[in-house]
Design goal:
alpha+beta, 8-stranded antiparallel barrel, about 20% helix
C-alpha cells in the first residue's frame, strides 16, 4: 500500500514548529524548578514552617504580567486586514508567559469586468482560508514574535467568464482570430491558488493579540508567507473562430487553436509562478477578556 509522503516545503515549517514547542517545554520546566526552590527558602524575618507560609501574602495575579508567578491564561478575539488573504476574524489564547496559540478565518470577494486581447472578461476573486498559528515571543517586554503554522484550509482562487462580440478580433499567443457571427467565441478561465489544500506558513512581526500588560485592547502586525504550491492557470474556449485566411473552425476542438491555448496557459503559469509563496502582510486589532 502506498503511504502519503509529505512534501519538503511542508516539512520545514513543521520541524520549526516542533523545535519551538520543545524549547518552550524546557523553559517551563526551568521556571517551575526555580519556583520550587524559591518557595522552599527560609523567610528573611526568621519565621519558618507553616506559620511563615501563612504569613506570606499570596501572589497577585496581573492578567499575564511578565512575572511567571502572576501568569494567567487570557483569551482575545480580533479582526485583521491582510494583503492576498482578505479580511480575517481570529482568536488567541495565552499558553505560557511567552507563547500563544492563534487561529482564524479569512475571506474576501471581488468582481470586475475589463477587456483583454479582444475578450470581455468578467472576473471574480474568491479568497477563503482558515489558519492555525503558534506565537512565540522570545524577548520579555518586547512584542516581537515568531509564528509558525499553516493554512489548514485553502480555497483561494480566481475565476472569469470570457465573451466576444460576433465579428470582433481576439488574439491567442500572437495569432489573430475573428469571432464567428453565428456562434461567437466564449470561454472560461481560472487561476487556482490552492495547490496545497493545507499550506505551511511562517510569520514574524510585532504586537500581541493577548498582551501581558493587563490591557483589554491589543494590536498585532504580521509579515511572512504561506507556501500554497504552484498556482495553475487554465483557459477553455468554445464557439467559431475564423483565421485571417478565411477558414473558420470549432475553437473547442481545432488543433491549432488548442495549441495556441496551451501556449497561452504556459506563459501565464510562468508569469505567476512566484505566487507559490503567497505573501502575507496584515494588521489586526483585538479585545482581550
Amino acid at each position: 500500500m502506498n503511504r502519503p509522503r509529505m512534501r519538503r516545503s511542508q516539512a520545514v515549517p513543521l520541524i520549526l514548529f516542533s523545535g519551538l514547542l520543545i524549547a518552550q517545554a524546557g523553559e517551563l520546566n526551568s521556571d517551575n524548578q526555580g519556583g520550587a526552590i524559591s518557595s522552599g527558602a527560609a523567610p528573611s524575618d526568621g519565621q519558618t514552617g507553616p506559620a511563615a507560609s501563612a504569613a506570606a501574602p499570596p501572589p497577585q495575579g496581573s492578567g499575564g504580567q511578565s512575572g511567571d508567578s502572576g501568569f494567567m491564561h487570557r483569551v482575545g478575539v480580533g479582526v485583521n486586514v491582510s494583503i492576498l488573504l482578505g479580511i480575517g476574524i481570529e482568536g488567541a489564547m495565552s499558553l505560557t508567559p511567552k507563547t500563544n496559540v492563534r487561529g482564524g478565518f479569512n475571506f474576501f470577494s471581488y468582481s470586475m469586468t475589463e477587456n483583454s486581447s479582444g475578450f470581455s472578461v468578467n472576473g471574480h476573486l474568491h479568497l477563503q482560508s482558515a489558519e492555525a498559528l503558534y506565537d512565540w515571543y522570545p524577548f520579555r517586554r518586547v512584542g516581537f514574535h515568531l509564528s509558525p503554522g499553516a493554512l489548514v484550509y485553502n480555497g483561494n482562487k480566481v475565476t472569469a467568464g470570457l465573451t466576444t462580440t460576433p465579428g470582433t478580433s481576439f488574439t491567442l499567443s500572437g495569432t489573430s482570430y475573428t469571432s464567428g457571427t453565428g456562434n461567437p467565441v466564449t470561454g472560461v478561465a481560472s487561476v487556482d491558488l490552492n495547490d496545497f489544500k493545507i499550506a505551511p506558513m511562517f510569520l514574524l512581526g510585532f504586537g500581541n493579540l493577548v498582551p501581558r500588560s493587563g490591557r483589554h485592547f491589543g494590536v498585532i502586525f504580521d509579515l511572512g508567507a504561506a507556501m500554497i504550491g504552484s498556482p495553475k492557470f487554465a483557459l477553455n474556449l468554445a464557439g467559431t473562430a475564423c483565421s485571417a485566411s478565411g477558414g473558420c473552425v470549432n475553437a473547442a476542438t481545432d488543433p491549432t487553436v488548442q495549441a495556441n491555448l496551451q501556449s497561452t496557459q504556459n506563459k501565464t503559469n510562468n508569469s505567476i509562478s512566484f505566487l507559490k509563496a503567497l505573501p502575507v502582510i496584515r494588521i489586526g486589532f483585538g479585545y482581550i477578556f
